[in-house]
Specification:
There is one protein chain. The chain is built from five helices and 47 strands. By secondary structure, it is mainly beta. The protein has two domains: 106 residues, Immunoglobulin-like; 518 residues, TonB-dependent receptor, beta-barrel domain (Maltoporin, Chain A, Beta Barrel). It has a 29-stranded antiparallel beta sheet that branches. Strand 8 and strand 9 form a beta hairpin. The radius of gyration is 29 Å and the shape is globular. It starts with a helix and ends in a 21-residue tail after the last strand.
Length: 814
């Protein structure tokens, strides 16, 4: 690896020297207001060869600009800025005079004052970008003051239940990225992380159902990329505060962008309240080979919980452009918080005749203090040919993740009869190195012109996971707590992934497009139970193909695609710690899990009309082998143990439809639906389940005079299937109103979630050879929140490169 890194650096140096030798030209100058003689900062400077853009930049705070590494030739220099007339200057660079100093270029004012601009239409909330579906969250006012989970509920093809669990077309194994790069917080526990991320920082959500070879193969269902709001040119910032009965938050961001240097800082604090009530009945069964199963006992549980989680995060990013062809970016972020999950559970165990066998109340004090730190460092070299570039990217992240609970068990006479303290201290450290090269070229034929882009790259990921768990208990509830060695262990786990890819994209003027590629990945796994001296080892190699073919005819596009995906078990799936906070429902991980391997095929059709109607529909089929699902078994004492296991197959065939339109100038309307038939089968466990699952959503907004906007949203899901059961349907609706003032630099948004119902009910039914159960859950979801946002500073578009960052499951940073 050391020699490879040295060769890469030598290659970059040689390429840079060669580019400078071949392109000795240089242009420099400054822009000045012709009336005030003051410099014009942040103006756009573009060098053109006919209609082709050669390069460009923006002026700095003093109105200066430099365009280095230019080939000799004749060009047109175009300078422009809002409020000034665009100016074009002919420029000639020769071998004898490759450098030109243009001096002060005068820009004349357009001679009129810009009044208030009336926008003729609104940007669509949902857009189809060909290889991905984009939900523009910043255009949806009902998101103000909410969480990322609230945002994802409105995204087509996604389904989010009341606990925040996300599925894409019925599959919960999804890769979630932040700005194109992985987030340890999202990998830790997706449902919790989404509740802790404020919606105010989200710009858009990208859904990628058929990723290509340049994407990491992880994520059997697909990829969700959360794009946060970015800085533009100049200095600007925001400050916001949210008050509500379930959500509260405060946040700020500061952004500085000059010609060569950019700095962004952000910080957010957040609180969310989670209230729920549960009732469940479970019958323990004794399987019989020659007749129906025999009931052994019946467990009835009633529980309630009311918890408020507190968290926050901060981020810093720095971008530096030494010249027009080199870019360096550094980013650091930290998350942290405290998530309690306290509850009171009343338990009653009876025999089939109704006689009481056991009764007690369990008070659980469950804490989950968490944190995460992540650092990204990247270098990108651009060449004279547009689109040709080479990059080296690195990433380091460390995530301590701790679970601690205390349980006090009381008899029906309210006497303390048992106590337990359990702690699980774990961490996940990850190192990543990645290099990519892109080379575009064009083939001019007699009848057609073909643009081709070749992409190659290599990547290495090292994940080091550790878990230490201890249990102390008092068997009578009165004596001191004593360590239980049978429930204590130390566990180390390492995962090394080495990969390389080749991808080819071909686009023709006749609107044919082909994306084809293959990704090679080798995975090496080592596990070690230190206390019990038990080891595990596994390695496997995968060749992941992908191909997408599309044809566009005017506003119509037809696309067919096939890809494979691999889902390696996540950290919380592997951790063997026993969560016995509920002694009748024990949960644990499974370090012996195998990865999922999915085959995904899709046929889609898209049409966009001049009147603003966009229709996207897709017919898809997914086959997953070694599918991971949580399975439960119940012993004769009525105790359930639940852990993830590999089942044989998960199949799904479905139809997805999304529509977006603007019936009139100020009215946006979009919605969609998904219907699929799901089949799960496990011959080894002698279980199977299948059924029809569907969901619909509708979102509408209207801009009123005086800077008012109204919006309404509603979605319904019929639930989803697991191997052992089914969750019934649930729904979500919201109404919002927004008022902008102070020249649109400030806004006030009032949001009502589920205003017509205090809560949402959901039922989970499960059956297996050892039990049958039915659980009813009631989630308090009626809420009101008020968000104030203030935007300050100067924001102008243009300039600056976008730095690449590591994206362990996506292609590049955004």
């Amino acid at each position: 690896m050391k020699h490879l890194f040295t060769l890469l650096l030598l290659g970059v140096g040689a390429a840079s020297a060669l580019a400078q030798a071949l392109n000795p030209g240089k242009l420099s100058g400054s822009l000045t207001d012709s009336t005030t003689t003051k410099p014009v900062p942040f103006a756009t400077v573009a060098l053109m060869n006919g209609a082709k853009l050669i390069t460009g930049t923006t002026t700095d705070g003093a109105g200066m600009f430099i365009l280095p590494n230019l080939p000799v030739g004749s060009y047109r220099l175009t300078v422009s800025f809002v409020g000034y007339s665009t100016k074009n200057l002919p420029v000639v660079l020769t071998a004898d005079q490759p450098e030109r100093q243009l001096g002060s270029i005068l820009l004349a004012s357009e001679g009129k004052t810009l009044g208030e601009v009336t926008v003729a239409g609104q940007k669509a909330i949902v857009e189809d970008k060909g290889d991905r579906l984009v939900y523009n969250a910043e255009k949806d006012i009902s998101n103000a003051g909410g969480t990322a989970a609230d945002v994802l509920r409105k995204v087509p093809t996604l389904s989010v239940d009341m606990d925040g669990n996300v599925q894409m077309r019925g599959n919960g194994n999804i890769k979630v990225l932040i700005n194109g790069k992985p987030s340890a917080m999202m990998a830790r526990n997706l449902a919790d992380a989404l509740r802790q991320m404020p919606a105010n920082v989200i710009k858009s959500i990208e859904v990628i159902t058929s990723p290509g070879a340049k994407y990491d193969a992880e994520g059997s269902a697909g990829i969700i990329n959360i794009i946060t709001k970015k800085a533009l040119q100049g200095f600007n910032g925001t400050a916001s505060v949210t008050a509500g009965n379930l959500n509260r938050g405060i946040g700020t961001s500061l952004n500085l962008k000059k010609k060569k240097f950019g700095l962004s800082l952000s910080a957010n604090g957040y609180q969310f309240r989670n209230q729920r009530e549960n009732q469940s009945v479970r019958t323990t069964l004794l399987p019989s080979s020659d007749g129906p199963s025999v009931p052994l006992n019946i467990l009835t549980q009633t529980s309630s919980a009311d918890n408020t989680g507190t968290g926050g995060y901060g981020e810093m990013s720095v971008d530096y452009d030494p010249d027009s062809t080199n870019h360096i970016n550094f980013a650091a972020n930290a998350w942290g918080g405290y998530y309690p999950n306290n509850s009171t559970v009343v338990n009653r165990l009876t025999n089939p005749a109704g006689a009481e066998l056991q009764a007690f109340r369990n008070n659980v004090n469950f804490r989950n203090p968490y944190g995460n730190g992540q650092f990204d460092l990247g270098y990108t070299k651009s060449f004279q040919k547009p689109g040709q570039e080479f990059s080296i990217l690195t990433q380091f992240s460390r995530m301590p993740d701790n679970y601690v609970y205390d349980t006090d068990r009381f008899s029906t006479a309210d006497l303390l009869i048992y106590r337990q303290h359990s702690s699980n201290y774990s961490n996940n450290t990850e190192y990543t190195f990645q290099t990519d090269y892109t080379h575009p070229f064009t083939i001019n034929g007699r009848r057609d012109t073909t643009n081709i882009k070749l992409e190659i790259g290599a990547k290495g990921i090292l994940r080091d996971i550790g878990s230490e768990y201890r249990v102390t208990q008092s068997l009578d509830g009165q004596s001191p707590l004593v360590a239980d060695s049978s429930q204590s262990n130390d566990f180390n786990y390492t995962q090394r992934i080495y990969s390389g890819y080749t991808a080819l994209r071909i686009d023709t003027k006749r609107k044919w497009s082909l994306n084809a590629g293959a990704r090679f990945e080798h995975t090496d796994i080592r596990g070690d139970f230190l206390t019990t001296q038990t080891k595990l080892a596994s390695e496997y190699t995968n060749l992941i193909p992908s191909i997408t073919l599309s044809k566009s005819i005017k506003t119509h596009t037809l696309k067919i695609s096939y890809t494979q995906r691999i889902q390696r078990p996540m950290v919380w799936y592997l951790n063997p710690w026993l969560n016995q906070s509920d002694p009748k429902n024990i949960q644990t991980g499974n370090p012996y899990l195998n990865p999922e391997l999915s085959h995904a095929s899709e046929l889609s059709y898209n049409v966009s009309t001049k009147k603003g109607l966009s229709v996207n529909t897709a017919l898809y089929y997914r086959l997953t082998n070694n599918a991971i699902d949580y399975l439960s078994t119940v012993d004769a004492a009525g105790i359930s143990i639940s852990k993830p296991q590999n089942i044989a197959q998960r199949k799904a065939v479905g139809l997805n439809l999304n529509l977006s339109s603007q019936p009139v100038k100020n009215w946006n309307l979009n919605g969609g639906g998904d219907i699929r038939y799901v089949m799960l089968n496990s011959p080894a466990l002698n279980q199977s389940n299948s059924g029809l699952v569907w969901s619909v959503n509708l979102n509408t907004s209207y801009k009123l005079p005086q800077n008012y906007t109204l919006q309404a949203n509603g979605n319904f899901s019929s639930g989803w299937l697991s191997l052992q059961g089914i969750n019934t349907g649930f729904y979500w609706h919201s109404i919002s109103a927004k008022r902008e003032f102070m020249d649109k630099k400030a806004s006030l948004t009032l949001g009502l979630n589920n205003p017509f119902n205090r809560g949402v009910s959901q039922t989970n039914r499960q059956s297996a050879p050892t039990f049958e159960s039915e659980a009813h859950s009631y989630f308090i979801r009626r809420s009101v929140r008020l968000t104030f946002e203030w935007r300050f500073g100067q924001m102008n578009t243009g300039g600056g490169k976008k730095g690449k960052k590591i994206s362990n499951d996506d292609k590049d940073g955004r």
